[in-house]
Amino acid sequence: MPSSVTTSEGQLNRRDKFRAYMQAFNPTAPAWEAIRAGLVLENLHQYLYRNLAARADLEPGSQQLLVGGVGSGKTTELILAGRWLNKRSQVLPFYVDVSTETDLSSLNSGALIAGFGRQLGRRLAEGPDAKGHTDERRQKLKDSYAKVTDYAYGKTELLLADENDLWVEDAISEGGDVPPRRHYWHEVPGKLKPPLPPLNRDIQEVRAPLEDLLFTAKEVHKDVVIIFDGLDRLLDATKFWSVVHQDLRLLRELKVSVIVTAPLSVLFGVGVGQSISDFFDRVHHLTVIPSDSASTSLESVLEKRGVTNLLDPAKAYLICNYSGGVLRDLISLARDAAEETYVSDRDFITVPDIEKVGRQLGTGYLRGLGTEAINALLHLESSKSFDLSQPSNVELLLTRRVLEYSSTDFRVHPALQTVIQRPEPQRA
Questions:
Q1: In 3D, which of 77, 94, 111 has the Cα closest to residue 226?
Q2: What is the pTM of this model?
Q3: Stretch 324-348: mean pLDDT, rounded?
């Protein structure tokens, strides 16, 4: 009897140990949870978040772009930047995940303004700052907040039609002739095309209530900084440019600092004829982290989350190599290897466990690739050259089949390399 109890306790302790490990290596957990739990290596990107925050703080109205592949750690850097700004008593930062505010597939100009305006209005009209306002001021803030909310979600209005419009409609329904108008507008095109499209009428209309909210915010906090996340998931880069030319343009005029993410494709001129640097004060590009032996950053990420509880530190480099330096893949591989260990009734991760989940990750990247794409990967592998003027090659980069380590260093994802079938060498 005592031995069975000991065995049960041992199994329970083993289960709890693995559960704690799996929780630390959850790649889909919100970034703020990992930050709060102390699982994030803040110097992974040379404290990039400090530079993002400092520019936003020092230069009101500045606009910065953060670009990187999916799973490169952009959201973590943005949240850390917001937290850094929040510690400054004269700055009020707002973090807006656009993908949770609206359907990205139908994103249009005004969406960023609407998402930010609602957060700002709610904070000033209903949050802790509302207590310090007079009744008159509080009511005006609520009115401005209501106007921004109507702008965000629309409203239903009962309008009186113009009498002339009714008369024309009756004339048509009765088969009568509609009298010709004495005057009409004829547009004569100009010779110079404006470099940017004019601000849409709805953007201009929401400016007044937004200015009123910002005026109050600056009285209390001095400056407002907006962090827009989620736009890196846009499949259509032209949608990103629509908000750059409208929403971000208005925010720059209002002297509101902005930090925003974007699809990786904007770096390669997709959707615009000008360089991305023409539109932003600073462009920060997060490339993947080298996984070679000279870099210990990836191993430090694993150690920070407690990989040594189940893995010999000397074997951690295997997980780093299979990940190719993609943070999300790194964390996923460490988790999946632990699962293999658990179901095999072992207490520590082995090399075969890592190799198995590495091949599984590679198979996932291989799935859906046609002959042309595979040939492009094999060409990159042999020639070390990669032509980004080809849309098909850009697609390989966006889907992480190809990884960018620098502007001249592109490589096939290491996990994908392990499962690509290569043609048999021709015999002489």
A1: 94
A2: 0.83
A3: 95
